Amino acid sequence: MSAVAREPSRLDFDLLQEAFERTGVGLALLAPDGVFLKVNAAFCEMTAFSRAELEGHSFRRIVHPDEIARDEDYLAAVRGGAELSRTVEKRYVRRDGTEFWGRCSTTVARDASGERVFVVAAFFDITEAHRKDLTLRQTNSFLAAVVENSPVAIYTTDLEGRVNLWNPAAERIFGYKREQALGHLAPFIPPERREEARRLRERVLAGETLAGLELERRRADGSTIFINGSAAPLRDEADRVTGLLVACIDVSDARQTARELEQHLHFTRALLDAIPSPVYFKDREGRYRVYNRAWDELFGRGEDWKGRTVNEMFDERLAAEHNDRDRMLIERPASTTYEARVPTAEGEMRQLLYNKVSFVDRAGEVAGLIGVITDVTRYKETEHALEA
Fold this sequence. Notes:
about 400 residues, five-stranded antiparallel sheet
């Protein structure tokens, strides 16, 4: 009976021995002083040490020097009677000197008599996971720095529209401090614009990305500003929309400048049209870009002459004469005056006096020429009559 009774224990031991050896997890049994008593094949493969190079030797052989101190503290506590379990992530050193990151879970065990103490350790190679985690942390740090230092106002909201990210540029543009914005519905949307904002938010939360939005908003001091922005949905790992991200710039000054420029252009246009003499501007390629009402009445026939040249207006000889005189004004700043007999839009021949000057841009480069025409037909006819 004693033989039969002992057989299951022998079988259990063999199974445990086989499981210890064949498992894919690195396993080791250590004495309280940190000496390896037994290691399995997976641990040897992980460290690139043979079993003989590990068993009977200190744990210091495989632990990075910077990590040894806390392991010493742990073993000292075990020797003092503490039965501690712990899991740590730290650096280890392979036989060839290369480093790897591992996760080590340890617990304290005793033999059947309850006297002898062992440390049972399970090791997992987490080098790749640690590399990805480090890359992710670096990426997040980079993105956080971009958001914090961006001149563009950037903020995010949850599904209900409560702000959960608010960068310094948003503080500057909208005038609300971070603590005034976080956790609140967007405070810069005036009441009359809330319905508009709600519709835009619904479109983004439905998965649409919006760009080129020009919107009226209100600063903390009550002043009105205009922003140009874009909005996109935020998604989690399962691709579910969890909120939205908005990036915008203040275009109030640009909008005012554009309005003033438009008014100035309108005034300039009206001023040109009020001049009784035909006036026009050609670019360096000889294409008409601007002309007034008097010029249109003389040559335009109500057609759009912008982008066209004298080659389409006059015959080859007359066009060449104008081009030759224009060329010297394009080559360098100069002016010229000459008379020419040319046909009008109605086909009537008129004697015209041309006054032309190079147009120089702010960079000091010739950008085209300006021409002013005076109809001297009647003057010439009177002159000829007096001579007769």
